Amino acid sequence: MKKTTNFIQKQYEGFLKTPNLWKNAVIESLHQFELANTSHSIQLEKVELRLGKRVEQFVLFQLEQEQIPILASNLQIQNGKKTIGEIDFIIEQNGNPVHLEVCYKYYLFDPKIEGDEIDKWIGPNRRDSFILKLRKLKEKQFPLLQNEVTQQHLTELGIATDEISQQVIFKAQLYLPANSEFNNTLAIEESNIQGYYYRLHELSEYSNCKFYIPMKPDWLMEPLTQIDWLNYDNFNKEVSEFLNNKNAPLVWLKKPTGALEKIFVVWW
Fold first, then answer.
1. pTM to 2 decimals?
2. Rg (CA), the chain
3. End-to-end CA distance of the chain, in Å?
4. Residue-level pLDDT at 2
5. Which residue pairs from 192-198 have beta carbons closer than 8 angstroms and sit at least 24 positions apart in sequence?
6. For 11-58, what is each residue's pLDDT tens digit?
């Protein structure tokens, strides 16, 4: 349990250190809510949470530490027995209610994708993308606030529905193709660039390095040193199982100098 608690603390600290993906309302007119990055000692009642829900718990904890009034959290909007959506948070800011949606993503830049730069940021397994998430926020998650059932829920909670503004906490780790440079025209924060992604054959130049494949919740945290590192041959076998199943894992890489890096290994 001590190890689990320690890892959760490191995940939480990694979450705090991840910058918002952009500042102000420069992308799709979506306003970012800025959390303080001051770390506290955290404990979660539920430790077996998938990454998205874990991040929501980190946000909840941080809002409490900053003494920001929370009017509602994880609000299930149900019409009879049918769930039509969920609102992450409604908080109070400067005396006014704010509908707050939380996103924490990993995006890789694929220059071969047609379209604008914004279209080229995709999930590691190519099943989601930055542009699709923005559309979901603007076309589904934020409009949920105007639904009659939602309005009734909020009225019952004593929340003035005509005064609610909407913001996001949209954090992301970004990864570039191996040996490429960041050329950004989107006002994405350069500090979000965490490293590079590789195809397996491109890692042959790192055959003298050590590797570790963390569990997905541990993707949030910085690489550790005292872990069971794999040599190149054993890593090659282990990571091939992920790639054969079309899963692109995040990997910690340790160079002979002791330098640590986070990379993705992709199957595509």
1. 0.93
2. 20
3. 37
4. 42
5. 192/18, 192/19, 192/21, 194/262, 195/261, 195/262, 195/263, 195/264, 196/263, 196/264, 197/108, 197/124, 197/248, 197/263, 197/264, 197/265, 197/266, 198/263, 198/264, 198/265, 198/266
6. 999 999 999 999 877 788 899 999 999 999 998 776 667 899 999 999
